Amino acid sequence: MKKIMNSVVLLAFLIILLLQPAPIIAATKTGFVTWAEKVVPSLFPFFVLTRLMIYYQVPQLIGKLLTPLFKSLLHLSPITFFVMFLSMISGNPSGSKMARDYYDQHLISAKEMEGLMYFCNFASPLFILGTVGVVLYQSTTIGYLLLIAHLLGSIAVFICCYPLLRSKETIRQVTVQFPNQSFSAILIDCIESSLQTLIRVGGIIVFFYIISETFNIIEITQLFNVIMHPFIEDIGLPSIEPLVAGILEFTQGVTKVSQTTAPLQTKLILTAFIISFTGLSVHTQSFMFAKNLNIPYLKYFIMRLLHGCTSALIVLLTWKTVLREDIDVFLPLDSTPSTVDSSLIPLTVVLFASYFVLKLYHQIKIRVKHKLA
């Protein structure tokens, strides 16, 4: 029955695409531009760097030095803390990717992998401070408020995940073995792996932009407006659309929330929730790295809700104290800075052209070796 329903839904999507191609194509273009402009430049360096760290045993070296400290104070594996710390800096879905890489290298246990999947879901600090704070709200103070609420909100998730992260089997002797391959060979492998992951991430982002636009076409968002009318009226939100968009894809959601005419308090609370909830698009990206692992999505979803609600509550309790001065955060729609930076599109194209060239070179090299053998 479930497979039949999936087929029906896909057929409905096809019909909508044939009947309303223009908005679907526009949503696809917006999703691709968002990926090329914001996701690729921010995640590509971290993906390559963390992969290089795995090859050159950086987590093991840190673990060798800090094992006594983490074992006695936190009862955490140093590699676990290393993944948690880097995920806070690099943003989604880097934490899940690092956790999977270290799990595949047998550096963390299955229980620890599950705990890291629940915990390591952070928006990039640069995104919160730069895009949300400066661009959308024209205030670095708001950016810092949202960032602090986002980080403090994760404490509730950490407390819930601690029994998994504290697993005694992860606190073991760390061995260091440096690679035998040349640096150029390792770097090419890291670049290929990172670009392949970014292609998958980009596909997921574009897909959820299409879903969001489809909801508007078939008027599901309008139906939510009718159902939730008492709630959105109480908080001064003119439409439920920004929240629905944020639940699906958080970048699109926080942008739409900032452009509404709702009170500043409402906008900041919703923005804090969306950033920490991260959106179903990021959920899908993170679970891409949980393939063949018995990690329940329901628990993951509950942790995202907990993070989002905790961050929103922190903003609710502190925003008046932090924002003592009146801040003009309402930008006219025609003067809102565009999210499109066309100069980054050629850079993305060059990166992925390089990926396919490296892939072709790698295949030719393998065939030559087989012939010589």
Automatic annotation (TrEMBL):
Residues 38-127 form the Nucleoside transporter/FeoB GTPase Gate domain. It comes from the Bacteria. It holds the Pfam family Gate. InterPro entries: Gate_dom. The chain crosses the membrane at residues 73-95, 116-136, 142-165, 186-211, 268-289, 301-323, 343-361. Keywords: Membrane, Transmembrane, Transmembrane helix. This is Sporulation protein. It comes from Turicibacter bilis. The lineage of its organism: Bacteria, Bacillati, Bacillota, Erysipelotrichia, Erysipelotrichales.
